[in-house]
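Journal club prep — side note

Before the paper discussion, L.F. wants everyone to see what a predicted structure for a comparable chain looks like in token form. Sequence:
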Amino acid sequence: MGRQHARFLTRHPNGQWCKRIGGKVTYLGTDYENALVRWYEHVKGHGMGVALQTICLRWLEWKEGMALSPRTLEGYRWAVGKIADGFGSTCKVHSMSPLTVEQWLDGLGVGVWRRRHALMVLKACISWGSEMGMCDRPRGFGLWKGPSERELRGACKGAVHVWTTDEVLALVGCGDKRGRLMALLGINLGYGMADMCSHVQLMHGGEWIGGPRVKTGVPRLGWLWPETKRLMEEVGAPPLGRGRARHLYRFWNRHVEAVGLVTGGRGHYDLRATLRMLMGEVGDVEAARLVMGHEHPGVERFYLRQVAKERVKALLENVRSRIM
């Protein structure tokens, strides 16, 4: 066809018929009739009939043409294989939903970091296919969420995320007084770095300490062990920091090293996890929540207004007998 311009398509200087589709100029071939059919399919179907597997394979082929490391390409091939196995060869992009993606992620049978990588590749494939005019992003595309940051942080620590009894004894019995007090505040009261840098905590009757938790504002109550009370009188009660916890992390790492221990991915906050684990063996969940400053779940929070101090003291005395 000799014409340079038609009603629907434009003749490019390179000889191909083209059309702007989705904000991008798309070349449809040199034959006008075939180009018109291809453009009509785009307009009528928006590419929604394209299989997910086809888009992922073309995206992988595009990535393999780049100068990427073998390790990166291996990860991409693994993720595309999981997508093909999980969704099948007949799954269309427009039929996908947040629920189907969530079910696919749960069925992968891998860790949180692998799940995050697989979801990243899936979204990258669909975004690339949308830019190429092969498909539209399905409804709810922005709702596809991978593992939370909390899950990712927990995966970094591995299975061991608590301090053993011998390690706690070393942390509270050796080294600088300030470091020992930090360890005691963590294992006795479940304090984090923010708690030790805040003026919010209040003394109650000498051996009791409470006030809202700095991080969440949830009320809390703790009974001071004799060792904790004595060191607080010698060193000075919190705040131990100057309004920020950043420098306390460095001080804590030096204290652990001076005691002769290896962190193994654990920090001061894991003393709080150790305390909660030991309190869980007693079974008084309400008193444990009060010590930790955890919010009561669901409708339970409207009924549990007060927990006797004796229950909190008995809980923390039991933990002390296990450690000291």
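L.F.'s comment for the group: The domain at 165-323 is CATH 1.10.443.10 (hpI Integrase; Chain A). Keep this in mind when we get to the figures.
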